[in-house]
Design brief:
heterodimer; A: 305 residues; alpha/beta; 8-stranded parallel beta barrel; 39% helix; globular; B: 264 residues; 3-stranded antiparallel beta sheet; 11% strand
Chain lengths: 305, 264
């Protein structure tokens, strides 16, 4: 079947109970398994979940998959692709899709996502999430790529907004581009609040206007992460490093996003400078409190006598 | 604007550093210097993957020198598929060629570097290989014997995690020491004598040892698609009539090295 023009609705049963999740790193496999055995310390069932980069599990066998199976018995998983290059012509290729499909079929992840970017030509994989020009032809190519991906793996996916470091010539702005891509391809959106913050600092994007123009029903997941100044350009360019704790302005923007989108599975990404698992868990608990606060009266109402 | 023109211009910049075609797609003509953010990101991701895939070589060369070699490798052999798992297939060959192609720049590259890289890559491939479907262990041998079957006549093969690697230098002890974090004095010399090293995965961990000549003969006969165990033993005995078949076979069983070629 094709998912084109099928409306993505973020209230699917499998994601309703997901709270704040964490990137799953190999350094923490044992910590996560120990946590699942220490029930008194473990966050409530389905509150904590883990996300992996799908392509890191393109292996034939061995401990990496064994650990993922063991952790998947205790916690919901999310597969977050970084190498499909949905915005390139004729991508993703059949081999890539077969490997994603096999993983999705085995692990039945709660969420599957990719990026609204390009990263490959027919000759080379550039191992980075490169921006698309927001033009009609790029939009069509992206819609085709999402369509190919969803049909290839047999699941609706979410696509993530990129980090922008420069303004490229465009025919539409990013909210318009992403929403139309999602509506035409029948996928949902993963709003990376850190990416949005960086884009607003590095380029002409207005983060608050951006969030106001994303329909809440399209949003199936939110990411937050740490960032760093570029080693060469300093504060002029902030880099999506995933190598630091989530910064205060990103937490503030997250609050706005959650007010707009309501309860949404929320992931803290960390891919470098990996701290001890307990430190990440504290950050996860902080993120979880943001979700719980959504169920409380607004702060202003609570402060009234 | 055609998206393919933009992607071609972007790819050209990432590959060569030529920013001129890409600048045409940029809103602010004064910004092209910032394109470096993307090129740096591409190289960093690939070099980080090489550092992860070749940790002993990283330790052997030191981070700065390793990164120089890795950067050269990325320029020559950028990734082809949408994953960096297993990236670095040609790294050993490039490391071997660098001192020949530019002796001035690479004169400090130790001659054993390619061997160290090969051992790292064999270890990595063993770790990520398919699980064995039917390990031959002492219980299964007993079961076969009770069925009246002669194990020497059975068709067996090495399990999918086995990798056999031949080095030009005797680097195995050095590689193990670097892998396990032992202190190694810089400039340590290794003999230019070939070694055959076998890697295999057992209970989730990769194991490694040097093979003797008859052991290598035995293992090579059992590489997939495999063969009759007796033929492999004969090949080993041809090299050394005193080869200890019993102990070697027992060690193979204990380490899960063999599997039957037919599912029982």
């Amino acid at each position: 079947m094709s998912y084109r023009h099928v409306t993505y609705v973020n209230s699917m049963m499998r994601t309703q109970q997901l709270g704040a999740g964490l990137s799953l790193k190999a350094e923490h496999y044992q910590d996560v398994l120990s946590l699942s055995q220490a029930d008194s310390l473990a966050p409530a069932e389905h509150e904590l979940w883990f996300e992996v980069h799908t392509e890191n599990y393109f292996v034939a066998g061995g401990p990496r998959l064994d650990y993922l199976r063991a952790i998947g018995e205790h916690y919901p998983l999310s597969f977050h692709g970084v190498g499909a290059s949905l915005g390139s012509a004729h991508m993703p290729d059949a081999s890539h899709l077969q490997q994603v499909k096999a993983l999705v079929e085995e692990f039945q992840p709660a969420l599957v996502s990719e990026h609204a970017v390009w990263s490959r030509t027919e000759q080379t994989y550039f191992a980075d999430l490169l921006p698309l020009p927001r033009t009609r032809s790029a939009l069509q190519q992206l819609v085709d790529g999402i369509d190919r991906y969803q049909n290839g793996i047999g699941r609706q996916i979410l696509i993530e907004n990129p980090s922008n470091y420069l303004d490229f010539k465009s025919e539409m702005d990013e909210p318009e581009f992403l929403v139309e891509a999602a509506q035409r391809a029948g996928c949902g959106l993963l709003i990376d609040v850190n990416n949005l913050y960086l884009s607003s600092r590095n380029t002409s994007i207005d983060a608050l206007d951006y969030l106001a123009r994303i329909p809440a029903e399209l949003v199936g997941e939110i990411h937050i992460a740490g960032h760093d100044p570029d080693p060469n350009f300093g504060q002029q360019i902030l880099i999506d490093s995933h190598a630091a704790a989530v910064a205060a302005p990103v937490w503030q923007l997250l609050e706005v996003a959650l007010q707009r989108f309501g309860h949404t599975p929320l992931l803290i990404e960390r891919d470098a400078n990996i701290p001890p698992f307990t430190e990440l868990l504290q950050e996860q608990q902080q993120a979880q409190r943001y979700l719980l606060d959504l169920q409380s009266p607004p702060l202003a109402a609570r402060q009234q006598p | 604007m055609m998206v393919q023109d933009y992607i071609n211009a972007f790819a050209l910049y990432l590959e060569t550093g030529d920013a001129e075609p890409l600048a045409e797609f940029c809103e602010d003509p004064s910004q092209p210097a910032l394109f470096a953010v993307y090129r740096n990101g591409f190289y960093k991701a690939c070099i980080d993957a090489l550092m992860a895939n070749f940790p002993v070589c990283l330790n052997f060369l030191g981070e700065d020198y390793f990164k120089q070699a890795a950067r050269t490798y990325v320029a020559r052999f950028p990734p082809k598929t949408g994953t960096l798992v297993g990236y670095g297939e040609h790294f050993a060959a490039v490391a071997r060629e660098l001192p020949e192609q530019d002796p001035e720049k690479w004169r400090a590259m130790p001659a054993a570097t390619a061997d160290i890289i090969n051992l790292d890559y064999a270890w990595l491939n063993s770790l990520m290989s398919a699980n064995s479907e039917q390990i031959l262990d002492s219980d299964s041998v007993t079961a076969l014997t009770e069925q009246g079957r002669d194990i020497a006549q059975e068709e067996v093969r090495l399990n999918p995690s086995v990798r056999i690697c031949v080095t030009g230098y005797q680097v195995f002890d050095l590689w193990v020491a670097l892998k396990t974090g032992a202190e190694i004095s810089r400039g340590v010399s290794v003999a230019a004598v070939p070694q055959t090293v076998m890697f295999w995965r057992w209970q989730g961990d990769v194991q490694a040892r040097v093979l003797s000549a008859p052991e290598e003969s035995l293992m090579r006969r059992l590489q997939p698609p495999g063969g009759r165990l007796n033929d492999a033993i004969e090949a080993a005995l041809q090299g050394d009539r005193d080869f200890d078949v019993g102990n070697t076979f027992a060690a193979c069983l204990q380490n899960g090295l063999l599997e039957l070629t037919t599912i029982q």
